[in-house]
Amino acid sequence: MRLVQEAMDGDRTYSTVIDDVQQAFITVQTxxxxxxxxxxxxxxxxxxxxxEGAVAFVFETEVLGHVDSAAPSMLLAAPTRxxxxxxxxxxxxxxxxxxASAEVLPREGExxxxxxxxxxxxxxxxxGFLSQRRIEAGRHVQFVIPLPEQGDLIGEVRVxxxxxxxxxxxxxxxxxxxxNLTDAERERIVRFVFRQQLLLRRHGAL
Length: 206
Hints:
eight-stranded antiparallel beta sheet; Pnp Oxidase, Chain A; 2 domains; elongated
């Protein structure tokens, strides 16, 4: 993680490591320069960068406090808005979420078809999901996706491809992209994915 502090004589950049992630704050190791601890005053505003492969997440934060110990740490305010900067594509978070509801949207003269679906990966660009129902590529599916700590998100997905069930399995594996998603809705997904990445990194899973 990189922290940038704007100053009259030029920006100051510090490197640190995320130790913990909570709903209201992020705990990071207190930065050092030439082995000297940099203790920033409470209220100091910072711009934070977290890189994951070709994707960088950027957000504004501020120093909330300090924890004095053998390994001193600093508390940063959790982001209210996260900007994603990427060179190639959206980062897809591998996750298992039971869709609160899923419905294949009808074509003219057709009734809607409710299906059971499990979200297998999620990004700001789309979803992967599993379902026993066969759905043609090009069809649209409306999901109610439960985002922990953020509430339900209603999103429409266009199926762009699928894989037949493997031997002994009953679920098709689908790949879909969001359509008609507002910037605010996409931002909610990006914030959720970002928080989950921080948690995975904390537990050494990334």
